[in-house]
Every structure is written in structure tokens, then in C-alpha cells.
Write a structure and sequence with these properties.
The chain is of the alpha/beta class. It folds into two domains: 25-215 and 420-436, Rossmann fold; 222-417, Glycogen Phosphorylase B (Rossmann fold), CATH 3.40.50. Helices cover 49% and strands 15% of the residues. The protein has helices at residues 4-23, 25-35, 39-43, 64-80, 93-102, 116-126, 140-148, 162-171, 175-178, 189-197, 212-215, 222-231, 250-260, 280-289, 297-301, 321-327, 350-353, 369-377, 387-399, 401-417, 421-436; strands at 56-61, 86-90, 107-110, 128-134, 153-158, 183-186, 205-207, 239-246, 268-274, 294-296, 312-314, 330-333, 359-361, 381-383. The strands form two sheets. The chain has a seven-stranded parallel beta sheet, with helices on both faces.
Length: 437
């Protein structure tokens, strides 16, 4: 049971959550009217949990990105603890869908709403011997309940941004709870320092690196890449520029930069991949309004004639970014050119870097700051702030194939040199599991 101090904290948290729910009630009702009562909504309150588990290991990731980090950990656990049930939870619906697809052999649930009675119900129902939380899912009632029931919690690939640190340092609310988490494995020394300033004991915080590097694998299928280049109308000597995960406005900047490139002997091509495929038609309309010849990927797939280097390909399909990076020669990574919020900025640079592409990006990369710093330090990436800088960077890379090759090789080395965090984290988990078994 909760001690008096923890009970008071839980009551205050529950009251705060209830107040927030009352404020958001019109929005909640609107969602229920439009979409109906979703299974996830009820399950987060503890409904429809099916049968309980005994002695499970509970692994949690908020969204699809964090869920993907669990895949190698699950494989290790399946190998070493074949008789131990695994429970996978996600907070977002996309995360839940990703978990259901990645882990069909294991129980997948929505993470509970952070009301004390609800989290106690989940923890007693699934009876975990260990809870593994990815990155920064610090739900206070859940952590309090785990500590009260004697369930150890491990945070892997942990992080504490400057903005989150300032909030927690000001409120001093989550600090005493984090101080009792037995294992926090963080990505960098900066994250460790912020957690220590919040009072987390040094011996409980380990710097192990970023597990996202381990997901980047140079799995090249040369025949498939060659066939895709031919399908899209690119010759072997065409230099293909790709803009990956572009947000609104970044397409305009990249197209303007591309149009600024002077005529040169080398033939270049442009592929634009929106972050959200639903925006592809809008991207197409703006590009056509600017005088560009554009074709959508679905048109090519449907038998339309590829434009090759004479036009711009806009990708309105999903799941093809890796293959398109593989056929490209230069990559600009979106989500980085404009400010999108204190905790947002940038997308996955590791995927094209492991393929040996020179990487270009904008100045807003808080989500991948360490990777950007490593690429810049190794002269394996270039930061640009506008269409002129982007055009100049593209021009210099187009004119010098040897420079492209060397810069891409350095990008590959940066990613390879940062791998290994998953195994280091699993070693720490094993030591925690041995204490519990």
C-alpha cells in the first residue's frame, strides 16, 4: 500500500487529472460522437484486459518510434527467458498498432490512464517482475504504484530535455519519484547531469548511448535499388536528391533551392517525400503552380510515365522511404528547417547516413541533436538555413562526386561508431532481473 506521503501525492495527482478531464470534456465528447467509443479508450481504464499474467516482464513505449526500439530487447528476452510472459504496452494508437504488428506472439495493451486506482489494477492484473519504460514516459502515479508494490522499473534510452528539466526543477514534483527508480540508462552525459540535478543518485544513472543507432542497418539490395531507379526513369549517372520527411513549407524551400541550381553537365533529379502522405497532393499543386513538372508515386505505380530528371517525383505512398534513400545520392532531412516547438525538431538522420549518403538538414534538430553534432564534427553533414544555403550546398555536392563519396562514408562511420547501446542496456537489465529471480 501507499505510505502517507505517497498517498497524498496520488490524491493530488488524481484531483489534477480530474480537473484536466473536466476542462477537456467538450473535446472528449466531440471525439466520442465523431469516432465512437474506441477499444483503447475503455482499456486504458482497465476494461477488457483479458486474463491476467503471472511474473511477466512489462515493456512500454509511447509511440511507434519507441515501440520499434523494443524489438531487439524482446528478441533477447525471448532467447534468455522463453517461459516468461512478455507484456507490450503503448500510449498512442499508432504505437499500439506497431506493437501488435511487431509482437504478435505477446500480449499488447494500451498503457493505462495515470489515475492511481487504474494503474494499481493494471499492475496487479499483469503482476510484472520488471517494468521497462522507453525514453521519458515518467507517469508519476504509475511509478508510485510500481514502487509501492515492490516492482522495479528500468528506464532505457532515457532522456531529459532542457525544457523538461526546467519544468521538473521548478515543480520538484517528479524528482522524488525518479530518485527511487533503480535503473535509468540515458543517451548522453547531458541527460545524466540533468537527472542528477533533480536528485537521482549517480549510481542509478548510466550513460549507454542511443538505441536508435542500432536500428540503422545498411541492408542494401542492389538489384531492387537498380530496378527502382529504372522504374522511376533515372539513369545510372543521374545524381538523385531526396528530401525525406518534409513538413509544409520545406517542400517549397527545397524546390526553390533545386531550381536555383545552374545548368551543369551532371544530370540531377529530385524526390520529395512528405512527412504526412496526405499532404502530397498539396505539395504537387504548389510545385505545379511554380512551373515545375511533377508526378506522384502512385501515378508511376499505376503505369504513368516517369519524368526522370525532367521532373519532380512526390511520394504519396507509405513504407518506401528506406528504399528511396537507398537509390538516392544526397539526402535533405525535413522537420528541421522551421521551428515547430520546444520539444520538436528534426527526423531520423541515421537511416540515410548508414547508407553512406551525405546529409543536409536545417537548424532545428532537438530530437536528434547528438546525431547532428556528431555528423557536423565529422564533416559528414551540412546545416542549411534557407533556399540559398541549401542550393549552394547541393551545388557543391553535385559538382564533386568524390566529395559526395567521402562525406557519405564519414556519415556511415558516425552511425557505426555509435551503435551498441541496446546490448549495453540489456546487460544492465539482466543484472536487475537476476536480483528479482
Amino acid at each position: 500500500m501507499l505510505g502517507l506521503a505517497k498517498l497524498l501525492v496520488a490524491i493530488l495527482l488524481d484531483l489534477g487529472y480530474l480537473l484536466a478531464a473536466l476542462v477537456a470534456l467538450p473535446w472528449i465528447i466531440c471525439r466520442l460522437v465523431l469516432y465512437g467509443v474506441q477499444r483503447g479508450f475503455l482499456q486504458r481504464f482497465g476494461a477488457g484486459l483479458d486474463e491476467g499474467l503471472r511474473g511477466s516482464i512489462w515493456l512500454h513505449g509511447s509511440s511507434a518510434g519507441e515501440i520499434s526500439l523494443l524489438k531487439p530487447l524482446v528478441q533477447f528476452l525471448e532467447r534468455d527467458f522463453p517461459d516468461t510472459p512478455l507484456l507490450i504496452s503503448a500510449y498512442s494508437s499508432t504505437g499500439h498498432a506497431a506493437a501488435s504488428k511487431l509482437f504478435p506472439k505477446h500480449r499488447v495493451v494500451f498503457f493505462p490512464y495515470d489515475f492511481s486506482a487504474v494503474v494499481f489494477r493494471f499492475l496487479r492484473h499483469f503482476n510484472p517482475i520488471l517494468v521497462v519504460i522507453m525514453e521519458s514516459e515518467f507517469w508519476p502515479n504509475f511509478l508510485l504504484a510500481s514502487q509501492s508494490l515492490g516492482i522495479p522499473v528500468a528506464v532505457l534510452n532515457g532522456k531529459m530535455s532542457p525544457k523538461s528539466y526546467r519544468l521538473h526543477d521548478w515543480t520538484r514534483f517528479i524528482s522524488p519519484i525518479l530518485q527511487n527508480v533503480p535503473l535509468i540508462a540515458v543517451q548522453t552525459k547531458d541527460h545524466k547531469k540533468r537527472l542528477q540535478r533533480l536528485g537521482v543518485p549517480e549510481h542509478r544513472v548510466h550513460v549507454t548511448g542511443n538505441m536508435k543507432y542500432d536500428l540503422a542497418q545498411p541492408q542494401l539490395n542492389l538489384k531492387r535499388t537498380k530496378n527502382l531507379r529504372e522504374k522511376l526513369g533515372y539513369e545510372s549517372n543521374d545524381v538523385v536528391i531526396i528530401g525525406g520527411s518534409l513538413h509544409k513549407g520545406e517542400d517549397d524551400v527545397l524546390i526553390e533551392a533545386y531550381k536555383r541550381l545552374p545548368d551543369r553537365t551532371v544530370s540531377s533529379s529530385l524526390i520529395i517525400v512528405p512527412r504526412y502522405p496526405a499532404e502530397a497532393t498539396r505539395f504537387q499543386q504548389r510545385a505545379q503552380a511554380g512551373g515545375c513538372r511533377v508526378i506522384l508515386k502512385t501515378e508511376v505505380d499505376g503505369g504513368g510515365r516517369s519524368l526522370g530528371p525532367k521532373g519532380i517525383l512526390i511520394v504519396d505512398t507509405v513504407g518506401e522511404l528506406s528504399d528511396l534513400y537507398a537509390l538516392a545520392d544526397i539526402a535533405f532531412i525535413g522537420g528541421s528547417l522551421f521551428y515547430r516547438g520546444g520539444n520538436k525538431g528534426g527526423h531520423n538522420l541515421m537511416e540515410p547516413a548508414i547508407l553512406g549518403l551525405p546529409i543536409l538538414f536545417g537548424p532545428y534538430n532537438i530530437s536528434f541533436k547528438e546525431t547532428v553534432d556528431a555528423l557536423l564534427d565529422a564533416n559528414a553533414g551540412l546545416m542549411v538555413c534557407d533556399a540559398i544555403e541549401l542550393s549552394n550546398a547541393l551545388g557543391s555536392l553535385l559538382d564533386n562526386s568524390e566529395n559526395r563519396r567521402k562525406m557519405g562514408a564519414r556519415a556511415y562511420e558516425v552511425i557505426m561508431n555509435h551503435q551498441g547501446a541496446t546490448e549495453r542496456n540489456y546487460t544492465l537489465l539482466l543484472s536487475l532481473l537476476k536480483m528479482e529471480t
